[in-house]
Amino acid sequence: MKQQWYDWLCVCVGVCFLAVVISCDEEGDVGDSGSANEELTSEQDDDVTGNGAPNGPHYNLNLIGADKVKPADLQNNKGHRIFPPLFGQTQIMLAQGDLQMLDANGTDGPAEFQLPHPDPENDGVLSYTVWARAVGTPGGDATMTTCATNSITGQEYCSTHTLSLIREKGKSVFTNVSEQLLYLHADVDQDGVAERYPLFDAAFVGYHWFYENNGLRIAQLRFYGPNDEEVDTDTGVDTDTDVDTDSDVDSDSDADTDSDVDTDSDVDTDSDTDEDTDTNIIVI
Fold first, then answer.
1. Cα(238)–Cα(50) distance, rounded to whole angstroms?
2. How far is the C-alpha of 47 from the C-alpha of 59, rounded, in Å?
3. C-alpha angle 241-83-213 in degrees, rounded to nearest 5
4. Tell me: the pLDDT tens digits for 110-166?
5. In angstroms, what CA-CA distances link 53 with 1, 31, 98, 133, 197?
6. So where are the chain's domains?
């Protein structure tokens, strides 16, 4: 009898021990799975951003509305900003080459900015893209249009695709504006369909952006991809978090707005269009 109780006791102890071992193994598995999930979440957080712009290296350019004429000594200025009038019009002349500021003063005449040829084959595959948003004190707006002079007729054309920037209260979000700022859409052959010409296409000379400001304090432009691999214009986009800038900028100061911040990647545009007008409105 004692032997039977002893045998049953051994069996019970063995079963309990086995149960404990299995339980520990399962807990170890759960621990490993949890750590993998945490790692995945942190990677996703790094990739997902909130200001509408892609991730990756970029060049910043700020257009800062100035309420009075700036000093004329802003040529060959290395700052990443241009001063257009806070109310009024100016031209930003465009030269071909690496991204560089040539003349930051748009209050005493045309400003000048240098940037690469965006689409040498005119096949819709851009070597870089441009993104824009309106920031600063809410209430202002501005338009920006690509224009140039026909190299044969001497007639000036402005693109049917106009970028419209409107600053409203709330978070500012970037939008891809490559189609508006890197191409000129014009019906040169008068067949009722606007043809697409990339910046620096030989059909035109005197490429420039016509900037008309109605109180917009800051328009921010970001250039993604120059000197890197080509960006397929049909590619999608990642977004990235950013701090909202509701604060005003003193347009009398050349300081502050020189900052060349963070990093990001590339994106998408559209190709040819049959429409007469295409205004990209950024309401922010």
1. 9
2. 19
3. 80
4. 999 999 999 999 999 999 999 999 998 899 999 999 999 999 999 999 999 999 999
5. 81, 36, 22, 10, 25
6. 58-283
